[in-house]
Design brief:
This protein is α/β, with parallel strands linked by helices. The protein is built from 12 helices and 10 strands. The chain has helices spanning about 55-60, 85-95, 110-120, 125-140, 145, 155-170, 185-205, 215-220, 240, 245-250, 255-265, 280-290, and strands at about 10-20, 30-40, 45, 70-75, 80, 95, 175-180, 205-210, 225-230, 230-235.
């Protein structure tokens, strides 16, 4: 659960702007004023229609993009626009799984690719092997079966899993998943997300989750930021956000199906007091109504 009593957010973003290809005919203003804060141990969703600026935002969190334009990104109290900030140290703490996994895999063999981060951490051969084995198990890639496979021969879903394993192998404090489970089959996805949620809930890993799937967002995160046209458009707890379907619609977004059903039942005067976010919550509520 979030602890907003902590003195300082782990990541603080103030009025962040970002322009791609500035001064060229292809110039795009991707961010026009994003403000948000993320505390250690939180799980945060970032949602918004395609092109809203979500990937551009999260690439500022591990120093891939630097806030040199108006606005600030402060990470653990360090101003990321300061050139003396060591990006290598940041990347160890903040693991970003890219939207396109093929941008992340570059070693020939899957095992070597996942071992790349631990190697740079200076871990021994034995420790590296254990990390790789652990990370592959976390994402549901069998160690013996996949470690010597060529990365380019993996299917789309397997590539995603390998990319996530490579980031998990660093055991980062903050894990950012940018639409990282797209293409993984539903069962594999469910297992993978359950293990990630476990790392968040029981091992304190901060989770930043970007996804077009509202059901997944609802089940994974405690708080949500809605981004629209490069700006922070809405923020609140997951329940507060999904309790405003009309506002979300305006930003091209929906709510989980089960939430829609609950809203409709409420319009028909059924005494649904809280907005259910998951099927399990809805079942609980319906059960209470049937028993009352
Ligand atoms: N490397 C780049 N060069 C030029 N323009 C870019 C680049 N990356 C993103 N953009 C543009 O910046 C805007 C924001 O893109 P971004 O990828 O951050 O959006 P997004 O919310 O992640 O979208 P999606 O949901 O489709 O992943 C878009 O208009 C996009 O075309
Ligand atoms: Mg994106």
């Amino acid at each position: 659960m979030k602890d907003t009593h902590q003195a300082q957010p782990f990541i603080q973003v103030n009025d962040l702007h970002h322009v791609y290809l500035r001064g060229t005919p292809l110039e795009v203003t991707a961010l026009k004023g994003v403000t948000l804060e993320i505390y250690e141990g939180e799980s945060i969703g970032i949602i918004g229609r395609t092109g809203a600026g979500k990937s551009t935002i999260v690439q500022h969190f591990n120093g891939l993009l630097r806030a040199r334009q108006p606005g600030k990104v402060i990470l653990e109290g360090q101003d990321m626009s300061d050139p003396s900030v060591k990006v290598k140290a940041i990347r160890q703490k903040v693991g970003l799984v890219f939207q396109h996994p093929e941008q992340q895999l570059f070693e020939r063999l899957v095992g070597d690719d996942i071992a790349f981060g631990p190697k740079r951490l200076g871990l021994s051969r034995e420790e590296r092997r254990e990390r790789v084995r652990w990370a592959m198990e976390m994402v549901g890639l069998d160690f013996e079966r996949f470690k010597d496979r060529f990365t380019f021969s993996l299917s789309g879903g397997e590539m995603r899993k390998a990319a996530i394993a490579g980031v998990l192998a660093l055991q980062p404090k903050v894990l950012i998943l940018d639409e990282s489970t797209t293409g993984v089959d539903p069962r594999g996805r469910k297992d993978l997300l359950a293990r990630i949620l476990e790392l968040h809930r029981h091992h304190g890993m901060t989770l930043i989750f970007v996804s077009p799937n509202m059901e997944e967002v609802a089940s994974m995160v405690d708080r949500v930021y809605v981004i629209d046209d490069g700006r922070t458009a809405m923020s609140g707890t997951t329940r507060e956000i999904f309790d405003r379907p009309d506002d979300l619609r305006q930003y091209g977004l929906g709510v989980p199906q089960v939430t829609t059903i609950a809203h409709q039942l409420r319009e028909h005067s059924l005494p649904i007091t809280r907005t259910p976010l998951t099927v399990a919550e809805a079942a609980e509520d319906v059960w209470k109504i049937l028993n009352s």
